[in-house]
From TrEMBL:
Gene Ontology CC terms, in alphabetical order: cytoplasm
Gene name for this UniProt entry: Ctnnal1
Signal peptide residues on this chain, from the entry's feature table: none
Protein name: Alpha-catulin
Family membership: Belongs to the vinculin/alpha-catenin family.
Low complexity compositional bias, start-end: 7-18
Organism: Calcarius ornatus (Chestnut-collared longspur)
GO molecular function, one term: actin filament binding
Length: 763
């Protein structure tokens, strides 16, 4: 992770002009990073213009307008920052200092760019951007640093909200553990349900905002645990209340509470970027990542024969070969795969010996023949490592495919349910042994898949799956034992059902994970990550039945399959269009890629696959998709300020179309639907409206790309920033919604005052 607040490509571009922000600050979220980009663009434009030899009156006026626009934007930005300070006393002092610095820097930039009325802007009598180059760089650096401080401080409020929400959940969990009556339990669990939904909403937004993909994956894993455990906690607690003297019921309940606490703790570790007792996170090394690093070092010898020692290279290979023992020592690896892995390991050692021999000779005498021999040795070494990678991938994925196919009938789970209801303790004991064997197989499968997952997020997903099987297996066993002891207990039967569903769900997720791993290996779109947040709070979330998810049945999936396929084709079209852009960091491209990713997850939902498991997940995804579309429309408005006047009407018309369609989708996603038929109609409408937005997006992307190229090819000139709306600041001070004020005076408010600044080109 970057240690500079200007770590994104957009922000780091300022370094060429001598700009830089406080190195002690670290930006961890996209919202803060993206908010800084337009400001850096404006300032960079000013810095780049100071060295131009010819300056027309038009240029001077444009520079002055930009300077004034920056100052005005900073003034409004600071007003919001000061409002945040007043709302949050613990940040008031730091925030106030940062706001004062930002205001002062903005005023300095305005003074230095006050050149339009001067006949000779280089005149010594008036200090300007042209005469005081150091001054403008210093003011720009101070401005960036102070604005970044304000944003990072505002981001702390979001972290504080998540911590506060977690503390509420923990406090209510403690009450649930101690409760002794059903009536009291139902009352407290209703409160707990509301708190969990709010926590899910906050952490879902945070997950989407994180820059670090590894942290995103860890957050997704923790939130998945909390989502599944909420229902487990309900049935396990009810079973314990119904059978207070049953030891297996108590063990079952304690396991759920323990797992939820661990997941809550991990969320806070990710959000605060800290670990208990200051210990550092030890990431397990996979064979894939080891081979990738080893090959990079070997290929680096072409450029530099002296940048590492032969001992380092030998150690790296030893570590990789030690990890292959996870495959060769596994009882589940086929004899054929084991033999091939051992042969390739032996060959890798021989190839390294040959490489080192030629390498050492080349260091002493750099002849043409020796360099050719070195090239051959490098190619042979890399080819051997590729074959080893292919072999372990084949071993892991073929084992996974066989196991998942073998366990799809869930025969052991079905037998446990039947024998539990019969009260047959001996038969339950027999099938729990079989489940334990199945658990060991699946855990081993996850360990091997982790080695070949190909990306850190997928590695983390494998680790999460391994933990889930490790924990859920014993929980199913304790739930089955409880049912066998109380065969007539409806709640004990329901409890076993919930844990079995969690097991089945994880097996289903493994099929998707296996497909993603194969996609990454084959260079397909398997690395495409999907944003998923749990359902937002609703009017009826106090009702426990509202927590029960709704899924489409096979008939409904068949009806919606055609629409889903159309959506899939559109995501491919959008991906193709975004790949044509030279600047992959462009805001329009970023929003387009995000929308394509979300639309793809909705397509997977129509097939009964992917991370969107229920209709509620789909509706929430549709809301997020519509929000992303609205952000794209804002980016189109910003682009319209850069293009020529004759191109502007078409672009604005398309932007308005997009806003209208996104509003319709948002309204559909938020509308209530009671009953199966109404829910399916709502699903159909959401997919249809998403398809319509994606169709428009397919037209918009090439249009924008064309206009940008046209704009770059033309003469182009600076344009002033759009006028600021005075009522923006007042939006957060509605006295009727005091509980939302902290959220309103957060990153989003600050973002509004910076992102509306025009992206200006230096011509």
């Amino acid at each position: 992770m970057a240690t500079s607040p200007c770590s994104s490509s957009g922000v780091s571009s300022s370094s060429s002009s001598g700009l830089g922000a406080d190195a002690g600050l670290e930006i961890r979220t996209r919202s803060v990073e993206q908010t800084l980009v337009p400001l850096v663009s404006q300032i960079t434009t000013l810095i780049n213009h100071k060295d131009k030899p010819k300056r027309s009156n038009k240029t001077l006026q444009a520079i002055q307008r930009v300077g004034q626009a920056v100052n005005l934007a900073v003034g409004r930005f600071v007003t919001v920052g000061e409002a945040i300070a007043n709302e949050n006393h613990e940040l008031k002092e730091e925030m106030s200092v940062a706001c004062i610095e930002a205001r002062r820097a903005g005023e300095t930039i305005a003074q230095l760019t006050d050149v339009a009325s001067l006949d000779h802007p280089e005149s010594d009598s008036h200090i300007t951007i042209f005469t005081d180059k150091t001054g403008v760089v210093k003011a720009a650096r101070l401005l960036l640093s102070s604005v970044t401080k304000v944003l990072v401080l505002a981001d702390r409020i979001v972290i504080k909200q998540i911590i506060t929400s977690r503390n509420k959940v923990l406090a209510t969990m403690e009450q649930l553990e101690k409760v002794s009556s059903f009536q009291e339990f139902v009352q407290i669990f209703s409160q707990f349900g509301n708190e969990m939904v709010e926590f899910a909403h906050l952490t879902g937004d945070r997950q989407n905002d994180l820059k670090d993909e590894k942290k995103k994956a860890r957050m997704a894993a923790s939130r998945a645990v909390l989502e599944k455990c909420t229902m487990m906690l309900l049935t396990a607690s009810k079973t314990c209340l119904r059978h207070p003297d049953c030891e297996s019921a108590r063990i079952n309940k304690d396991g759920v509470f323990h797992r939820m606490r661990l997941a809550l703790e991990q969320v806070i570790e990710i959000v605060t970027d800290s670990r208990p007792n200051g210990e550092s996170e030890m990431a397990p090394i996979s064979i894939y990542s080891g081979i990738k690093e080893f090959k990079n070092k070997v290929e680096g010898l072409r450029e530099n024969l002296y940048f590492l020692s032969k001992e380092n290279l030998s150690t790296m290979l030893e570590v990789i070969l030690e990890h292959t023992e996870d495959f060769t020592d596994s009882a589940y690896t086929s004899h054929e795969h084991r033999e091939h892995i051992l042969e390739l390991s032996k060959q890798a050692k021989m190839e390294l010996e040959q490489l080192v021999s030629v390498w050492m000779q080349a260091q002493n005498q750099k002849t043409k023949d020796l360099m050719e021999d070195l090239e051959v040795a490098i190619l042979k070494m890399c080819q051997c490592m590729n074959e080893l990678k292919r072999e372990v991938h084949s071993a892991a994925t073929s084992l996974a495919a066989d196991l998942l196919k073998y366990h799809t009938d869930h025969m052991v789970l079905k037998a446990l349910k039947i024998t539990g209801v019969e009260g047959n303790l001996e038969a339950v004991a027999e099938y729990t042994c079989k489940l334990s064997e199945q658990k060991e197989q699946l855990v081993e499968m996850c360990r091997l898949l982790r080695h070949v997952s190909g990306t850190e997020p997928l590695e983390i997903t494998c680790i999460h799956a391994e933990d889930t099987f490790q924990v859920t297996g014993p929980q199913i066993i304790s739930a089955a034992e409880t049912l066998a002891l109380h065969p007539s207990s409806k709640i004990a039967k329901e409890n076993l059902e919930v844990f079995c569903e969690a097991w089945e769900s994880q097996l289903s997720d493994m099929s998707l994970l296996l497909r993603e791993i194969n996609d990454v290996f084959e260079g397909r779109r398997g690395e495409k990550r999907v944003y998923l947040s749990l359902p937002r709070p609703g009017k009826h979330n106090a009702n426990l039945k509202a927590l029960k998810p709704v899924k489409l049945d096979s008939e409904e999936q068949a009806k919606i399959a055609k629409l889903g396929l159309e959506l899939h084709l559109l995501t491919s079209d959008v991906d193709s269009e975004t790949e044509k852009w030279e600047d992959q960091e462009n805001e329009i491209v970023q929003h387009g890629q995000g929308m394509s990713s979300m639309a793809y997850s909705m397509y997977l939902f129509t097939r009964g696959e992917g991370l969107l498991k229920t209709t509620q997940d789909l509706f929430h995804q549709a809301e997020i998709f519509a929000t992303e579309g609205t952000k794209l429309a804002s980016a189109l408005h910003a682009l319209s300020d850069q293009v020529r006047d004759d191109d502007k009407p078409l672009l604005l018309l398309e932007a308005e179309k997009l806003i209208s369609m996104c509003k319709q989708l948002q309204a559909t996603a938020k509308a209530s639907a009671q009953g199966k038929s109404a829910t399916f109609t709502k699903v159909d409408a959401c997919i249809l409206k998403t398809r319509n937005v994606m169709t428009l997006l397919c037209q918009l992307l090439p249009l924008c790309c064309k206009l940008l190229r046209k704009n770059k090819a033309g003469n182009g000139c600076l344009k002033p920033a759009p006028p600021w709306k005075e009522d923006r600041i007042r939006t957060g001070t509605n006295s009727r919604t005091p509980e939302r004020r902290v959220e309103t005076f957060g990153i989003k408010s600050l973002e509004n005052h910076v992102t509306n600044m025009t992206f200006l080109e230096s011509k």
